[in-house]
TrEMBL record:
Record's protein name: DUF1508 domain-containing protein
Superkingdom of origin organism: Bacteria
Source organism (scientific name): Flavobacterium silvisoli
Pfam families: DUF1508 (PF07411)
DUF1508 domain location: 60-105
Length: 115
């Protein structure tokens, strides 16, 4: 099962990533000023996953990626894939697991394993 992971960018904005059950990042969101905005966006995606669309792209170097669209707005961008088949598997992973994925919040910067 996949997981949504909330963390912070270098500019202190919040972001979420959808990580596959194997630990690979599939999607990365845009930045959010407040953590609750990030959390709300995750819940909106989970609730409206069946209405989301995926725009597929190819870079000049032949890598494939997609953008997750919700109500004609780009919500997140995928990582780069070597082939279209691998990109399609990433989309399937989101379609299958995102609606029931748990949310982990690592934005506090607390070290999990203290000395």
């Amino acid at each position: 099962m996949g997981t949504f992971v909330i963390s912070r960018k270098k500019n202190d904005e919040y972001k979420f990533e959808f990580v596959s059950r194997r630990g690979k990042t599939i999607l990365i969101s845009a930045g959010y000023e407040l953590r609750f905005e990030c959390e709300e966006e995750i819940e909106v995606i989970k609730a409206a996953l069946n209405t989301c669309s995926y725009l597929r792209f190819k870079t000049s170097k032949g890598k494939c990626f997609f953008k997750l669209m919700l109500n004609e707005k780009v919500v997140a961008t995928s990582r780069k894939y070597a082939t279209e088949l691998m990109m399609q598997k990433g989309i399937q992973e989101i379609s299958k697991y995102a609606s029931k994925a748990e949310v982990l919040d690592f934005s506090g910067g607390d070290f999990v394993f203290p000395d």
